[in-house]
Amino acid sequence: MNRQKVVLALLFVVLVCAIAYGFLGGPKLRKAEKLKFTPGMAAETYRRTSKGPDTGTRLRIDLLDRETPRFSGFRRNIFRPVFSSMPVAAMPAKPVKLPPPPPPPPKTPAQIAMEEMGRFTFLGFMQRENRKTVFLSRDNQIFLFRKGDRIAGKYDVAEISDNMMTIALTPGGEKVVVPLTQNRPLVR
């Protein structure tokens, strides 16, 4: 705490010195003995000092009447190849056939499952005795699914929460998370 007081006192001394230097070291006011121009006196204007013809105030129309030389043009072909020693490739007569694009990669089981689950629409869920039941519809039919049930005979319901359902793919055991949005198709 004592060190802070010493630093504060030192900064205060520097501030006082700066203020004193500002007042004492500044420019002094002096009075002029005689004014060059008295108030109300007409000021002199600058006049032209050259003795030649006054070309600044006269419009010279004679410059428009003289003939201007025509531009003869430039004699270089700007479309010529830069490197003339290089042979120019001739265009082939027949268009080149490109190979057909490769077939799309096969769909993964997760993609197939998401396409099939996209046909279902989430209607809502009900929770009774810590067990949730999901209401899904497809083709004007309503289906009820709980944890452990099978969807479309291929997918097992692994987990159900308030905003998502996890399904397990039967052949590989891979899990896919499906978001649950009210009155919307099931999509990833």
What does this entry look like structurally?
- With 188 residues, the protein is an alpha+beta fold.
- The protein has a domain of 74 residues: Roll (SH3 type barrels), CATH 2.30.30.
- It is 19% helix and 22% strand.
- It has three helices and eight strands, in the order H-H-H-E-E-E-E-E-E-E-E.
- The chain is flat and about 110 Å long.
- The model has no long low-confidence stretch (mean pLDDT 81).
- CATH-defined topology of the domain at 109-182: SH3 type barrels
In terms of per-residue confidence, which ranges show pLDDT below 50 for 5 or more consecutive residues?
A: none
The secondary-structure element order is: HHHEEEEEEEE
Give the CATH class of the domain at 109-182.
Answer: Mainly Beta
Number of strands: 8
Backbone CA Rg: 48 Å
Q: Between the first and last Cα atoms, what is the distance in angstroms?
A: 64 Å
Classify the secondary structure makeup into a structural class: alpha+beta
Classify the beta-strand content into a percent band: 15-25%
* Mean of all residue-level pLDDT scores: 81
Sketch the major β-sheet: 4 strands, antiparallel
Strand ordering within the main sheet: 3-2-1-8
The CATH architecture assignment of the domain at 109-182 turns out to be: Roll
